[in-house]
Amino acid sequence: MTFSADSQAGHRRVAAVPIELVCPAGSLPALKAAVDAGADAVYLGFRDATNARNFAGLNFDAASMTAGLRYAQERGCKVFVTLNTYPQARAVQVWQDAVDQAAARGVDAIILADPGLMEYAARRHPQLRLHLSVQGSATNYEAIELYRRHFGVARAVLPRVLSIVQVEQVLDKTAVEIEIFGFGSLCVMVEGRCALSSYVTGEAPNTHGVCSPAKAVRWIETEQGRESRLNGVLIDRYAPGESAGYPTLCKGRFDVEGERNVYAIEEPTSLNTLALLPELLRIGVRAIKVEGRQRSPAYVAQVAAVWRAAIDDCVRNPARYAPRPEWVAALDRVAEGQQHTLGAYHRPWK
């Protein structure tokens, strides 16, 4: 699938690879699972607050980073390092050191959100490819072009708030590659601006790299059922035998205006854009991201394998492409809440 550089769109580029599959790597086993299942690129983070998945047991130290880079790159898989939290005034050096470490290790790109850190990366490592993180909350071409002009950003990950029509409008007016989320858990979709976790725990994704830090999570068995609490705040209560999700404020069940134990903000569900693949190819989306660095290697392997097969099938013959029932069933089994949605991509009113 190619696009003319002098088409009406004006900015769309001919892609050497039709569309990249970008998979999560929360650990070295997950990285290997993604690579072996056919990922074109993996994204990962250091074991600290410089990335938005700063959970205990996740991410990479120096040894695992070296091993992961070698494993991926020897197999033709790119490695993107995620540095998408916002540096704290008292510890800016931590984030700058992370940029330097990533550059020194020869990663294929770093994913950033903070403009100050972008300026540092562009100035200190002009050869280093920069991607704008979804945490940067850039939802229009003017914002994306600003990052390109000032910092040379090569790719932007769009927040999950745009319809397909709006994604195409962005693509029409920017030379920056566009990456979108294709599969994975949804939150309240205000990437880069969510402070719900901080309201209860004092820590949030954009500052400490973690939503609902594990140290604040408690599970309590009661006569009414199993309760999940976050820093003492009751998030949910589960009936016997009911599946329990990780407690986050946005997906908790609360008593609201006379209704008891209801999803007040958002019901757990996963985004799944398998059905949109021909459209994503047509409009020139450069990469599809799978969410889930906190998920297991088995999850990563299963999701990556489905998406690898679907992308290859669609590229071979987009006119005859349709998601196979076995693909949908495989993704439904690992979807949050065992249900999926097209999310904002398919909202005609937007």
TrEMBL record:
Keyword tags: 4Fe-4S, Hydrolase, Iron, Iron-sulfur, Metal-binding, Protease, Ubiquinone biosynthesis
Pathway involvement of the protein, from the record: Cofactor biosynthesis; ubiquinone biosynthesis
UniProt xrefs under InterPro entries: Peptidase_U32, RNA/ubiquinone_mod_enzymes, UbiU
Organism superkingdom: Bacteria
GO molecular function, one term: metal ion binding
Needed co-factor(s): [4Fe-4S] cluster
Residues involved in [4Fe-4S] cluster binding: C187, C194, C211, C250
Keyword Iron-sulfur: yes
Pfam families: Peptidase_U32
GO biological process annotation, one example: ubiquinone biosynthetic process
UniProt record similarity statement: Belongs to the peptidase U32 family. UbiU subfamily.
Assembly and oligomerization: Forms a heterodimer with UbiV.
General function of this protein: Required for O(2)-independent ubiquinone (coenzyme Q) biosynthesis. Together with UbiV, is essential for the C6-hydroxylation reaction in the oxygen-independent ubiquinone biosynthesis pathway.
The protein's name: Ubiquinone biosynthesis protein UbiU
Species the sequence originates in: Candidatus Symbiobacter mobilis CR
The encoding gene: ubiU
